[in-house]
Automatic annotation (TrEMBL):
One of its GO terms (molecular function) is olfactory receptor activity. This is G-protein coupled receptors family 1 profile domain-containing protein. It comes from the Eukaryota. Keywords: Cell membrane, Disulfide bond, G-protein coupled receptor, Glycoprotein, Membrane, Olfaction, Receptor, Sensory transduction, Transducer, Transmembrane, Transmembrane helix. GO terms for cellular component: plasma membrane. SUPFAM superfamilies: Family A G protein-coupled receptor-like. Its main location: membrane. Gene3D superfamilies: Rhodopsin 7-helix transmembrane proteins. Residues 40-290 form the G-protein coupled receptors family 1 profile domain.
Length: 313
């Protein structure tokens, strides 16, 4: 790399470390994951949009999740595919592109939590206050919840990146498979104490509010279900809540794995692979989990396939 020089606005991205023998298999794997993620998530949004029986607050709020997965996959995987087939000295990226990727990467990660929080609120109202559900979960409330989920993420991440952009740069190497806030402020030789403090507060507030609100929600739902003798209510609560909880645990597990591995420099390569998988895996698992576990969506998917089969035959 000593033989290569780059303009000040161009950075050298480490990319995903793969051997020459595994480059094409890795490329094909990530390409298949990306195609599946896009088809599955766009398909779910289209299905909910076209099927009138799914025009309910629960499914409308759920549309935020596949939309966020599309953002997360698009900002991450195409760049990875390019870097896999590119030699290390040619994996350059402009500073502006790097900031944009970092912004959308953090928005995706933050919105994964905020969307699941508003979905948990919907389940709480539906199960704990069923008689008031229609008056509480109006179209206006659904719009407000969706806007708050995205708005909070955009504002918090905007401040996070704003504190980093203000710094001058004395380095040009990004030692990560993709651009994120930590990689960007490490390019500076200035004091990054404020960046570290805000990043820590941001992470703690996000995880504490996320874990706290969802734990409290499920505790109240569990109390209602245990005190209720309505078997149909309990069955519906178990079906919808188990799907939501499984998706949340996947997001939480991926996030905690990356945070824990950050504390162990010896596992730097493992952390980098985990950070990629932590962003990629949920985007393709979420539509599978919701598509197979949610009765109404599963029935509609089967109906679509039956209609297509009838037209072909």
């Amino acid at each position: 790399m000593e033989n290569y020089t780059y303009p000040n606005h161009v950075l050298l991205l480490e990319g995903l470390k793969v051997t020459q023998q595994s480059a094409y298999p890795a490329f094909i794997l990530f390409l298949i994951i990306y195609i599946f993620t896009m088809v599955a998530n766009i398909g779910l949004i289209s299905l909910i949009s076209m099927e009138r029986s799914l025009h309910q607050p629960m499914y409308i709020l759920f549309c935020n999740l596949p939309l966020n997965d599309i953002v997360g996959a698009t900002v991450m995987i195409p760049r990875l595919l390019w870097d896999i087939l590119t030699t290390a000295p040619e994996r350059y990226i402009t500073y502006t592109e790097c900031v944009i990727q970092a912004f959308y990467t953090h928005v995706y990660a933050t919105t994964s939590h905020t969307v699941l929080m508003i979905m948990a609120f919907d389940r709480y109202v539906a199960i704990c206050n069923p008689l008031r559900y229609a008056t509480i979960m109006t179209n206006k409330m659904v719009i407000r919840l969706s806007m708050s989920a995205w708005g909070v993420a955009i504002v918090l991440v905007g401040i996070l990146l704003g504190l980093t952009i203000r710094l001058s740069r004395c380095r040009s190497n990004i030692f990560n498979p993709y651009c994120d806030n930590a990689s960007l402020f490490k390019l500076s030789c200035e004091n990054v104490f404020i960046n570290n403090i805000y990043g820590l507060i941001f992470t703690v507030v996000l995880f504490v509010s996320s874990i706290g609100s969802i734990s409290l929600t499920y505790l109240k739902i569990a109390i209602v279900c245990l005190s209720s003798k309505n078997s149909s209510l309990n069955s519906k609560a178990l079906t919808t809540c188990s799907t939501h909880l499984l998706v949340y645990l996947i997001v939480l597990g991926c996030g905690f794995t990356i945070i824990v591995l950050h504390r162990f420099p010896a596992f730097a390569d493992l952390r980098k692979v985990s950070s990629v998988l932590g962003s990629v895996v949920p985007t393709c698992l979420n539509p599978i989990i919701y598509g197979l576990q949610t009765k109404e969506i599963k029935q509609r998917i089967f109906r679509v396939f039956l209609e297509l089969d009838a037209k072909i035959n």
